[in-house]
C-alpha cells in the first residue's frame, strides 16, 4: 500500500525518502579538493585560450529523421496525461513520470547524448516557419520563468504530486509552447521551452554535441561548454537551476520545516519567499563577483559571458540532489507505469554510495566550471590582469561549492 | 604575478576560516535535536503532541541505526491520521488519545513522519 505523496513538505515533489546527510569527512575532503584545484587552475593552467567552442569537434555524418521519435514522445506524453487525468488516486504513476523520469531523467540523458529534449520534443512536430522574428531581447527569459514555475510547483506548491496540480502546469506549459511556436517558429522552442533550454544547457557537457548549424559532433565537453552563446536571461536561467536545487536541499532542514508550518505567512507564502531568496542569493553572488572581476580585469559586460561556467556547477547540484531519487523512485515509477505490482527496493543504493556520488558530482562540477571560467578569462581579460581578474570568479566557485556541500550535510 | 599569488594565499586563509561553520551543522547527533532521544539500547523513541496545529516539540530529527526499534507516540487534539513515509505505516489519531506506532528501522534514508489531515511534519526519521 503506497500513499500518494503530496502531503506535508516533500523534498522532490514525489518520493517517500530523502538522502541522509553526508559524513562530515566527505564534506571537508570535498571542500579541500575544490580549493586545491582552484589554486592550481589560477596559477598553473594555460595562459592562452584553448577552447574553440562551436568550431571544435569531429562531425558525425549520421542523420536520422526526427519525426518518429517525436511522435513516440507525444504518445508517451499522452500516456502520462492519461495517468494523471484518469489514474487511481493511490499508486498513480503520473507524478513519477513527470518529476522523476522526465525532469530528473533529462539530466543523465542530456549528459550522455546532448540536447535530447530538442530531438524528442513533440512541439517540434509543429510547423517551424516563423510569422515574426523572435525579439532578441527576450533571450532565455521565458525559459527562466518556466523553470522557476516548475521548481515552485515541485518544491513549494501545496500539493506538488496531486494530479490536478500537474495537469494545470502541463496545460499551461503546452499552451505557451504551442502559441510561441506558432508565432515565432522553432526559434521560440530553442529559447522559450524551459525543458529544451534545461536539456540543451546540460547537453553542452555531453561528448555528443550539436553545432549551431545543426551538425552533430563528437567534442570535448569543454568545447561544448564554450559553445554556449551568451544571451539575455542566460544568467537568470542558470541561477534558477542552482537556486532551486539549493532550496531543495535547504527546505528539509528541521529549522525550515518548523518555520514553514508555524510561521505567519503560511507554508506556501514562506516557501515562495525561500525559493525566491535562494535564486536571488545565487544571482547576487554571481553579479557581485563578476562585477569585481570586471573592475580588476578592466573589462565590461562580463556577466553573460561567464554564465556557461555555472552550467557544470548547476549540473553537479542537480546530480547530487536527485541521483538517489532517479535510481530508487525512478524504478518505482516505472513499475507503476507498466502496472507491475512489485515494490522497488528502497535500500537499492547504500548510503555510502549516495554520499560518494553527491560529493563527486559537486566537485567535478566545480572543477569543470573553474577550468571553463579560466579559459574564458584569459581570452577576455588583458594578459597582465588575467590572473588577478580571476580571483573573484574563484571566490564565486568556491562559494557555490562550499554552499553545495553544506546543503548536503 | 607574485602579488596575485600573495592575494590568493590570503584569500585561501580567509576561505579556510570561512569553512569553519561546516562543523556546526544541525544534523550532528545530539546537537539541537529536541526529539532525538536514542537510548543506550539503540532504540529511538519520540513523544509528540499536536495542539492547535502546532507540533511540540518542533519538528526535528529522530536518529536511529538501521535494524533498531522505533517507537513514536503521537497525541493530537483533533482526529487525524499518522503516516510514516517510506515505511508506509499508518495509525488513526483520536482527539486526546495517544497513538503509538512501533516498527523496525530497516530502510536507510530520511523519512517524514506526518499527519494526513492537517499535513504537518512531526519529525524526520533518519535511519543510518
Q: Compute the separation of the termini of chain B in Å.
A: 49 Å
Assembly category:
heterodimer
Identify the CATH class of chain B.
Answer: Mainly Beta
Strand content of chain A: under 5%
Pattern of helices and strands of chain B: HEEEEEEEEE
Q: DSSP helix count of chain A?
A: 17
Which structural class do the helices and strands of chain A define? mainly alpha
Number of domains of chain B: 1
Task: Please report the two chains with the greatest interface, counting residues with C-beta closer than 8 angstroms to the partner's C-beta.
Answer: A-B, 45 and 48 residues
What would the CATH topology of chain B be?
A: Immunoglobulin-like
Report on the structure:
- The complex is a heterodimer of chains A (409) and B (128).
- Chain A is mainly α.
- Chain A has one domain (24-408).
- Helix content of chain A is 64%, strand content 3%.
- Chain A has 17 helices and four strands.
- Chain A has helices spanning 24-44, 67-86, 94-104, 106-113, 116-120, 141-155, 163-184, 186-192, 194-203, 221-226, 234-250, 254-262, 266-297, 310-337, 351-380, 386-389, 391-408; strands at residues 17-18, 58-60, 208-210, 216-218.
- A three-stranded antiparallel β-sheet of chain A has the order 2-4-3, with no helix packed on it.
- The radius of gyration of chain A is 21 Å and the shape is globular.
- Chain B is mainly beta.
- Chain B has one domain (29-127): Immunoglobulin-like (Sandwich), CATH 2.60.40.420.
- Helix content of chain B is 13%, strand content 41%.
- Chain B contains one helix and nine strands; from the N terminus they run αβββββββββ.
- In chain B, the strands form two sheets. In chain B, strands 3-9-8-5-6 form a five-stranded mixed β-sheet, with no helix packed on it. In chain B, strands 2-1-4-7 form a four-stranded mixed β-sheet, with no helix packed on it.
- At the A-B interface, strand 1, helix 1, helix 12 and helix 17 of A face helix 1, strand 8 and strand 9 of B.
Amino acid at each position: 500500500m503506497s500513499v500518494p505523496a503530496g502531503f506535508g513538505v516533500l523534498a522532490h515533489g514525489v518520493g517517500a525518502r530523502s538522502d541522509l546527510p553526508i559524513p562530515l569527512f566527505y564534506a571537508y575532503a570535498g571542500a579541500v579538493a575544490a580549493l586545491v584545484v582552484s589554486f592550481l587552475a589560477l596559477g598553473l593552467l594555460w595562459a592562452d585560450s584553448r577552447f574553440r567552442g562551436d568550431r571544435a569537434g569531429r562531425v558525425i555524418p549520421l542523420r536520422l529523421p526526427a519525426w518518429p521519435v517525436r511522435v513516440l514522445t507525444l504518445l508517451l506524453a499522452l500516456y502520462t496525461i492519461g495517468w494523471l487525468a484518469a489514474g487511481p488516486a493511490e499508486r498513480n504513476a503520473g507524478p513519477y513520470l513527470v518529476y522523476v523520469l522526465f525532469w530528473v531523467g533529462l539530466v543523465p540523458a542530456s549528459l550522455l547524448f546532448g540536447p535530447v529534449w530538442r530531438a524528442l520534443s513533440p512541439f517540434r512536430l509543429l510547423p517551424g516557419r516563423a510569422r515574426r522574428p523572435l525579439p532578441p531581447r527576450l533571450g532565455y527569459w521565458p525559459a527562466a520563468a518556466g523553470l522557476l514555475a516548475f521548481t515552485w510547483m515541485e518544491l513549494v506548491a501545496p500539493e506538488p504530486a496531486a494530479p490536478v496540480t500537474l495537469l494545470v502546469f502541463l496545460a499551461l506549459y503546452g499552451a505557451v509552447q504551442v502559441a510561441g511556436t506558432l508565432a515565432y517558429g522553432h526559434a521560440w522552442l530553442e529559447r522559450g521551452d524551459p525543458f529544451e533550454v534545461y536539456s540543451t544547457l546540460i547537453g553542452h557537457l555531453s561528448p555528443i554535441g550539436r553545432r549551431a548549424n545543426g551538425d552533430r559532433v563528437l567534442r570535448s565537453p569543454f568545447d561544448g561548454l564554450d559553445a554556449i552563446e551568451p544571451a539575455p536571461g542566460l544568467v537568470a536561467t542558470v541561477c534558477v537551476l542552482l537556486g532551486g536545487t539549493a532550496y531543495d536541499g535547504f527546505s528539509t532542514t528541521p529549522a525550515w520545516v518548523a518555520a514553514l508550518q508555524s510561521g505567519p505567512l503560511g507554508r506556501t507564502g514562506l516557501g515562495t519567499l525561500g525559493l525566491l531568496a535562494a535564486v536571488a542569493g545565487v544571482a547576487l553572488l554571481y553579479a557581485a563577483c563578476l562585477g569585481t572581476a570586471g573592475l580588476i580585469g578592466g573589462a565590461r559586460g562580463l556577466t553573460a559571458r561567464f554564465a556557461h561556467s555555472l552550467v557544470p556547477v548547476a549540473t553537479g547540484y542537480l546530480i547530487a540532489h536527485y541521483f538517489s531519487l532517479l535510481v530508487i523512485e525512478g524504478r518505482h515509477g516505472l513499475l507503476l507505469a507498466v502496472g507491475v505490482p512489485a515494490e522497488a527496493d528502497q535500500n537499492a543504493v547504500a548510503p555510502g554510495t549516495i554520499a560518494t556520488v553527491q560529493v563527486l558530482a559537486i566537485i567535478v562540477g566545480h572543477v569543470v566550471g573553474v577550468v571553463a571560467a579560466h579559459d574564458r578569462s584569459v581570452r577576455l581579460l588583458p594578459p597582465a590582469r588575467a590572473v588577478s581578474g580571476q580571483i573573484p570568479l574563484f571566490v564565486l566557485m568556491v562559494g557555490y561549492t562550499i554552499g553545495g556541500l553544506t546543503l548536503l550535510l | 604575478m607574485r602579488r596575485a599569488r600573495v592575494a590568493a594565499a590570503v584569500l585561501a586563509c580567509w576561505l579556510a576560516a570561512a569553512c569553519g561553520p561546516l562543523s556546526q551543522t544541525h544534523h550532528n547527533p545530539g546537537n539541537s535535536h529536541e526529539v532525538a532521544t536514542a537510548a543506550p539500547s539503540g532504540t529511538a523513541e519520540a513523544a509528540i503532541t499536536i495542539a492547535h496545529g502546532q507540533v511540540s516539540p518542533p519538528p526535528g530529527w529522530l536518529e536511529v541505526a538501521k535494524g533498531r526499534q522505533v517507537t513514536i507516540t503521537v497525541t493530537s487534539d483533533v482526529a487525524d491520521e499518522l503516516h510514516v513515509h517510506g515505511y508506509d505505516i499508518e495509525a488513526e489519531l483520536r482527539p486526546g488519545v495517544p497513538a503509538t506506532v512501533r516498527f523496525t528501522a530497516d530502510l536507510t534514508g530520511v523519512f517524514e513522519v506526518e499527519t494526513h489531515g492537517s499535513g504537518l511534519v512531526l519529525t524526520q526519521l533518519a535511519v543510518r
